[in-house]
Amino acid sequence: MFKGFYTVASGMLAQQRRTEMLTNNMSNANTPGYKADQAGMRAFPEMLLQRFDKQQIPTENGLNLPFNKEIGTINTGVYMQEAIPKFIQGDLRETGRKTDMALLDINMPENGSVFFTVRNTDGTVRYTRNGNFTTDAQGYLTTGSGHYVLDSAGQQIQLSSDRFTVNEAGVLTGENGESANLGVAYANNPLRMIKEGDGLFRTEDGVELPTAFGAEGVQFRTQQGFLEQSNVDISRTMTDMMSAYRAFEANQKILQAYDKSMEKAANEIGRL
């Protein structure tokens, strides 16, 4: 009976966390460059149930021999192991702003992806697909949250004004003739990257990603005046949220049934 309580409770917790993940996806449906998370659900290890009994042998002394019989396996519940981002290209939306940029994947090795490189406030390098950039008072190109956008040499990009051009190869040319190569990194397995806030990612081991320029089999294009939209499928997310809610509700009803059975066992069977 108590095993059933734990199994149902684990199912409710898993669906609650899945709902929270889907809600976060929905709230970021309009965030540029956002990569939707998908849940990795796994079951706890199964347990083998056995019944212990004794068998009486018809002898003069009435010998009893203990034995056990296998009943079968029981699953001990489910849990949400992790939230895995989907690195699928989002649609491009034209904004007309010079400081907006988007990375368009032309040809990528399986599971590979490219990212803008930015410097975090603590000096470490981070990666993002959100090209909603701006320029600060000193003319440095930054993200909306103030992280410096880096060039191919890992240096901050300083421009004389926000009237600059970016060609498809990622070369920035300022109004006064200054030039810089936009820093774009390539990850052959972005699933190993760790997702942070503000649309930022970092590598699992802290080692910086290699440049995407010249990488074998990697073809991409930089689009100025465009933003990559979120790859959240709103209709699918709403369907998944309803499914998670119904699964939570079903587990809740089972839990109530267990509770009533325990109440009956305590109040009625205990009197006999």
From TrEMBL:
GO cellular component: bacterial-type flagellum basal body
Residue ranges constituting the Flagellar hook protein FlgE/F/G-like D1 domain according to the UniProt record: 111-173
Annotated PROSITE patterns: FLAGELLA_BB_ROD
UniProt family annotation: Belongs to the flagella basal body rod proteins family.
Swiss-Prot/TrEMBL keywords: Bacterial flagellum, Cell projection, Cilium, Flagellum
Taxonomic source organism: Mesobacillus selenatarsenatis (strain DSM 18680 / JCM 14380 / FERM P-15431 / SF-1)
Protein name in the entry: Flagellar basal-body rod protein FlgF
Pfam families per record: Flg_bb_rod, Flg_bbr_C, LlgE_F_G_D1
Main subcellular location of this protein, as a coarse class: other
Gene Ontology terms describing biological process: bacterial-type flagellum-dependent swarming motility
InterPro entries the record matches: Flag_bb_rod_N, Flagellar_basal_body_rod_CS, Flagellar_FlgE/F/G, Flg_bb/hook_C_dom, FlgE/F/G-like, LlgE_F_G-like_D1
Domain Flagellar basal body rod protein N-terminal: 5-35
Superkingdom: Bacteria
Domain Flagellar basal-body/hook protein C-terminal: 223-267
Localization per Swiss-Prot or TrEMBL: Bacterial flagellum basal body
